[in-house]
Amino acid sequence: MAQATDRLRRYLEDELEACRDEDVDRRLDELNALEATIGRERIDAELEVLSALANETRYTLVRALVAAGEELCVCELHAVVDASESGLSHALSALVDAGLAEGRKDGRWKKYRATNRAIALVTVLEGSVTDV
Can you name the residues that pair with 73 across neighbouring β-strands? Predict the structure, then answer.
């Protein structure tokens, strides 16, 4: 913490052309309030979502569900990704846990659809990458 405070002091001296202990204390209070606003629980929840997308199989499944715009059966999703049945099941479970997909039983079939969270994330990602 002392090293971070020293760096902050040097930064404030550059920005303000003079820096007092009160300036450093005030800025540290502002930064601590910012951190509290974000919240550790929120960061953990968002990291769970990002972790769920940080795998080719899971990301491909999310993209397929968003693109489909409707429910897809596990057998249809299996045709989209190169994964074993257990791998597919594990990937879908992780997506459900992260709030990116919802599943339901329909007779003997299991169907999944993208959640609004998944749609929003894919939309943002599509806008952040230039056409390849």
Answer: 111
70 DSSP assignment? S
In whole angstroms, give the CA distance from residue 19 to residue 46. 36
Q: What pairs with residue 114 in β-bridges?
A: 101
Look up residue 54 and give its two tokens: 């940080």
Residues 69, 105, single domain; the answer is yes
Residue 12 belongs to domain spanning: 2-38
The pLDDT score that the predictor gives to residue 17 is 75
- Comparing CA positions, the residue from 1, 68, 54 lying closest to residue 31 is 1
Give the integer Cα–Cα distance in Å for 93 and 99: 10
Q: What is the percent of the chain where pLDDT is above 90?
A: 50
Number of domains in the chain: 2
Q: How many CB atoms lie within 10 A of CB 118?
A: 24
Give the predicted TM-score (pTM) of the model. Answer: 0.73
At 128 the three-state DSSP class reads helix
Residues 56 and 74 in one domain: yes
